[in-house]
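Inverse folding, one chain.
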């Protein structure tokens, strides 16, 4: 094989269609855009426009509400932690916290903290430092001889003074 004999497979490269180059090409005059109108012009594409008819996104009723102050926890199950301990990714003798869970690959990014849930089997004796935990997870860890310490996040700390201010304003307004 020589460098001067290299070539692409048949059909690997296709020339672009040259539009607007005469009627003989099959893409002359209107260049495949039809006749006049908004869509024949450049930059014209109206997403959601239904020709003057009321668009479907306006015809359907609005539902639901997304609160901006919702606390979104990263969820960790006891079964996942037990598997990481069995695989040697986590040390049960050291406290299991956000940093150790991230190092073990159980948590990618923590939004508002970590919540411990009881899904899976738990056998190890370990201490946890998490933002939240379910009752069944607390019972499972304590039954195995471990303990769970609940810590507060920065989001919860910053939220508390704002609530106090709004309550004071509400009392003043009602007088």
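Residues assigned per position:
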């Amino acid at each position: 094989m020589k460098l001067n004999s290299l070539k692409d497979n048949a059909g690997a490269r296709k020339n672009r269609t040259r539009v607007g180059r005469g009627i003989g090409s099959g893409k002359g005059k209107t260049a495949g855009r039809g006749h006049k109108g908004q869509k024949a012009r450049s930059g014209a594409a109206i997403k959601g426009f239904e020709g003057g008819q009321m668009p479907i996104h306006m015809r359907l009723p609005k539902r639901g509400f997304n609160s901006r102050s919702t606390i979104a926890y990263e969820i960790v199950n006891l079964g996942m932690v037990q598997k990481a301990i069995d695989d040697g990714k986590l040390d049960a003798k050291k406290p299991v916290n956000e940093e150790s869970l991230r190092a073990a690959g159980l948590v990618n990014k923590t939004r508002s903290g970590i919540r411990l849930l009881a899904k899976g089997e738990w056998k190890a004796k370990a201490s946890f430092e998490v933002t939240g935990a379910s009752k069944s997870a607390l019972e499972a860890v304590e039954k195995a001889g471990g303990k769970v310490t609940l810590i507060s996040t920065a989001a919860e700390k910053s939220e508390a003074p704002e609530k106090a201010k709004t309550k004071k304003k509400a009392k003043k307004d009602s007088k």
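The chain has five helices and five strands. The first strand starts at residue 74 and ends at 77.
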